[in-house]
Amino acid sequence: MIWNFDFDISAIVIITTLILYYVYRKPLPLIHNLLFLALMVLSDLVAITDVVASIMTSYGGRFTIPTLYGINMLYYLCLISVPAVFCNYAAALSYKQVIKTRSLKYIFCSIPFLILVFMDMITPFYHTFFSINSNHIFSYGGFRPVIFYETVLYLLVGGAFVLAEQTNLRVSERYSVYIYLGLSLLGHIYQCYINPYIQTVSLANTVGILIVFLIHQNPDYDRDRRSGMYREMGVAKMKTEDLLYGLNRSYLTVAVENYKELRSSYGEVVSDHVLFELGKFLRISFPRMNHFYVHNGKFVCDYARYGVKAEDYAKVVFDRCKEPFYIDGLTYYISSYIVYTDGDVVMENHAVMRDTMRIAADEAASMGAGTILHVTEAMHQKAIRSVKIDSALNQALQGDNLLIYYQPIYGIKERRIVGAEALVRLYDKEMGLIMPDEFIWRAEETGRVLKLGEQVFRKVCQFVKKSNMDSLGLQIIEVNLSPLQCMREQLAEEFQEIMKEYGVDPKYICLEITESHTVNIDVVRKNMVNLSNIGVRFALDDYGTGYSNLVNVLSLPLNIVKIDKSIVWAYFNEGHKLLTKVISMFENENLRLVVEGVETEEMACKLEELGCHYEQGYFYSKPIPEYAFLKYVTDQRY
Ligand code: C2E
Ligand code: MG
Ligand code: MG
Predict the structure, then answer these.
(1) Does the CB atom of residue 435 touch ligand 1 within 6 A?
(2) pTM over 0.70
């Protein structure tokens, strides 16, 4: 009997290489990743034991009968394990299904496998899978097709897990599983029914594994290139598994305090390089921990898993930050702060944990570099609200249900309301009216601010179209732009289209940008120039709160500067002179000045004396809904 094991040899070479790379690149310690490793190792063993058993059986006379039974039984053991592990892998990929059918899964996944292991064990006595006679001749046993049935069962059950959970899985995950399933089935059908002497099972499994690896199991897909750490998504996956297995693991966030300055002063390449060096240092200092890069210079790690205390971890990080980072011969210093959970606050899910850590990080940031802060229950409660707001934002965006409030802007020369700032709000049945400070940052972080910005702009255009601006004495409606919107090359074109669609004269629109928009100044300038050319005006909002280069900012086509309320209040409350300096600084520029945060008559009069052109604040009105704003403007006119 001649076995052809050429396919096995190629399978061994491919899978062994994959295993070595997979282990070297250290995948996230998630159940499905470990099961994928098990699947590769077992498939490799199937091919190896197949070659060894085939050779030994061909030279039967040279080995004792028990040895021949042993090696062939080992081959069959590996062969029946592979589909069972695949089924578990598919189940672990589809998390929710595992929760719902956990016990069912174990029954399914273990009973057929255990029966076959038993049949393998009794092969020497009952010749279930094969037999070897006294002349060392090998023949197949009557129960060998049962292996095929077991394989089909496990492959189909694994496929069913994925099918049942398909909406929660990525297309790549689903299809790679189906491809593996199909190939493995074909390999078994060929070897079982067409030619048992050509070992196609290993080849089919290997090609299947290679496809799954290339499509979504490559550990590099979970890594962030900038820091060399795992991506933030990894924390969500770990947290999901924590919940699944009832674990309450502790996590810690390291934040680079001066990350934004580093980025705006030295640019992306240098700040990324510094982050990479810090990431490398952390990975080397705590090699067993898993580090995840979140964003904006923040890392998360599962520190407590290896018995390390948050304080000890913090000490290592803070000590490192005392030393400079050398990049291309230049030195850079960073400072950091740390927030951590230690298992006493139980996080419901990843979203709540993420927001709790963020809230804690904001608090630690206000306490300065070198702070180490323990997450409290109050922060956790705030985070629960923030997660609810996040889902309210999603609903509002999907249903186009954002609310626009208008805050009047008073013209000093005109002695009346000459415009308004459009300010977005969310409404939720349970939480009521939600202010932008609670959701804009999140919309920005997740890119949803693009959709939000477009919906706000459309609603403002709708308002301008239906109100008779001139007869109301209204000159402009100001709309806030997020930095992300400004950095889109298509912004000018899209806004132009929207204004055209609603028949709005661009002269009524003023777009507000802030100093933080000027990071990518060339794209911003291009958008501004294109829109200015058709008559749209631009205001620099919150002047005095950013760090940007004023020469750069003033080179943009701006019409208005809005002085931030903090500067106005500092003048009235503490006699701070910055306000007067800012006003005189802009005096000679051809710019109109708006002061924000005008809350009293006394402030209004004084600001007029100081030479401001427009005033905005609670003294005139808080932001109010559209109908109330129209009434306000109409009442003042008549
Ligand atoms: P902002 O653009 O600086 O808007 C002015 C904020 O100051 C408004 O807060 C307004 O209610 C508040 N304000 C005005 N006068 C006074 C006053 O006299 N006293 C006090 N205490 N506050 C005053 P609001 O509506 O909560 O908006 C906060 C921020 O959210 C805005 O600051 C803006 O940066 C952002 N935002 C609002 N709507 C949008 C939007 O449609 N898109 C984007 N990207 N951001 C928006
Ligand atoms: Mg504004
Ligand atoms: Mg402002």
Answers:
(1) yes
(2) yes
